[in-house]
Amino acid sequence: MSPLGQVRLLLFRSLREGVRNPVLAYALPVIIPVAVLVLVAKTLYRVTDLPGFPTGNYAEWMTPAIIMLTAMTGVGYAATSLVIDIQSGFLDRLRLLDVRPSALLWSRVLFDVARVVPAGFVLLAVGLLLGTDVREGPLGILLLFALLILWAVAYGGLYFVVALTTRNPQAPLALAPLFLPLQFLSTQFVPSSLLPGWVRTVSAWNPFTYMVDAARALTTGPLTLGPVAKAVAVAVGMMLVTQTASRRAYLKAVEGD
Amino acid sequence: MPEPAAIEVQELTRDFRGGVRALDGVSFTVERGEIFGYLGRNGAGKSTTVRILTTLLRPTSGSATVGGHDVVADAAAVRRVFGAALQEAALDELMTGREHLAMAGRLVGLGKSGAAERAAELLESFGLKAAGDRIAAGYSGGMRRRLDVAMAMVRRPEVLFLDEPTTGLDPQGRRAVWELVRDLRDSGSTVFLTTQYLAEADALSSRVAVVHEGRIAAIGTAQDLKDRLGTTAIRVLVAAGVTDRVAAAVDPNPVTATADGWVEIGVPGGESAVPGVMARLAGAGVAIERLQVEPPSLEDVFVSLTGTEIETADVPARDVNVTAVRRSVGAKTGPVQ
Question: Whole-prediction pTM value?
Fold first, then answer.
């Protein structure tokens, strides 16, 4: 079987298993971001009264950022499943059937993507219901989801590295709360100009800041090349680092002793 | 050119991190059509051998071929000639039996309908037809094992590796696996079977290798091993007071008398020694009223080779994990779509 056929077969396996465990697999990635978006839009809407705030609708300010947040609440399940496969010996079984390491890893990574993208659409819909004006139109949305996928693969790589290095299926759970500080230390809630000085400095080193800024440029606008190019560069760079490390950890986990 | 042996192993060693030597120069040959029993305690090196022969682990030194292909240099070719059911039934708890077999079929290159057909065939012949559309989390230990072996058969292998196929099974499940192995032998497959149960090695294998601390302690047919390394107990009922004459007649074999008039003579080797002993007793004029012969057991052989009793009770730690996983996925036993 071709490597691509293997990826497709194994991805289908994951999707089917997700259907049998639907709350964890498909509902969880949506619940937290929807809760954050609705609660924040309904409780903190007067933030927009601050001088210098770029929009009058706080839901509109938050929606693009929260769509990017789904990448961080939607990954992790696949890394845990992979470690369970290693522990049960099922992975050895697949190796005996000539499944390539890359097919095993990418089918799992793509499963994370398959959880994140629908969650992103749900959040977009909720945002629209809350009055978000998507000025950049369908092309912007398309590019937004391309960036969302990149970011999910880059951020999800962290989970694979932790899971495969510890070989403990529970270990990736420890990474879940990481999205909290990354949110607050970014431009998600308020523009950079309203952040305290030290937070502004930290946020410039926070990759999530770049995702949020680009997501806004691609939806509520104005669309300029700068933030989008920076975000793509950050996401691709991070993806190369995390996915390379995850591949190495994987090879060590299955071929070492 | 003669057909290569099913398995050929030469001076195989494997060291693990921390300097643990799991295999220490193991050599043996398994002929085609043979059931080869690989007998040893936990940690003796059985699974390490299997993992090397199935290309999952590289040897530190030495060489091995399966179906004539080198397990290191030609791993891909090796994978095409064997099937393996490794220690612990390696299943995906959320997949049905049919899905396991169909997926394996697709991965070995059968088309969609070919894989479905093969899956149905295997479910039928492994007695899993009724359970085929339930997820594995609800399977019993015996069903898990059978599904695991069925997966190993998807490719119609020339050589089948079964690593402790009955460990953790109840007597019923164990009997079912034994029958399965005998069927495989009858259909001409070569089977490499590891076990820590002496009775299993004795009942199934054409030849047995006893592995101890990473080395082959002895190798041969079970009968051959018993003849070479076992002890036959000959018990004779004789008149009171002739124990000393018995001892003198069979010297230097050890003799013990029991209170009820029986005298036990320990003779190295198998039952073939019995006529000789009887002749010597007759020559010494000892009248024998009754006779009992207890042939050597593989147990004796094992003890004489390793100096330890083999373990008989065993609860694999992995079973506990499987239970935990089943719980965490909320094991369903009904059909799923």
Answer: 0.80
